[in-house]
Amino acid sequence: MRHFVLFLIILFLGFKGFGQEQTRLSSLQNRLEVLAIEYPELDEKVNVNISNTTLSNFLLAISEVHQININVDPDLNSVEIINNFNDVSIQNLLFFLAKEYNLKLDITGNIISISRYVLPVAEPEEKQLVVKYNPIGNTISLNLNDNPLSKVFRKITDESGKNLVYAPGMDELELSIYLSEVNIDTALEKLALANNLKMAKSKDGFYLFNTPISGGESNGVERAINKNDNFYYRVVDSLNRIIEVDFNNVPAEDVIYTIAEDLNLNYFTASSLNNMGEVSVTSESINFDKLLEKIFESLKSQDFEKIINDQNRNRPQTQAQNISERAGAVFTYKKENNIYYFGTENQLALKQTEVVQLMHRSIEMLSNPSSNRRQNRSNRNNFMTGSSNYISGNNSTFGNNGMNNNNQSDFNRNIDRRTTGEEELNTEAIKKLIPEDILNGININIDSELNSFIVSGPSTNIERFKKFITYIDKPVPVVLIEVMIMEVNKSATIETGVSFGIGEERVSTEGQAFPTTSMRLGAETINRVIGGFDGFGSLNMGKVLPNFYMDLKAMESNGSIKILSTPKLSTLNGHKAYLSSGETTYYAVTNQNFFGSQIPQTSETTNYYPIDAELALDIMPFVSGDGEITLDINVIQSSFNGQRIAENAPPGMNSREFSSIIRMRDQDVAILGGIEERTKDDSGSGVPLLARIPVIKWLFSERRREDSKRKLNILIKPTVIY
Question: Which residue, 41, 533, 684, 704, has fewest beta-carbon neighbours within 10 Å?
Answer without folding.
Answer: 533
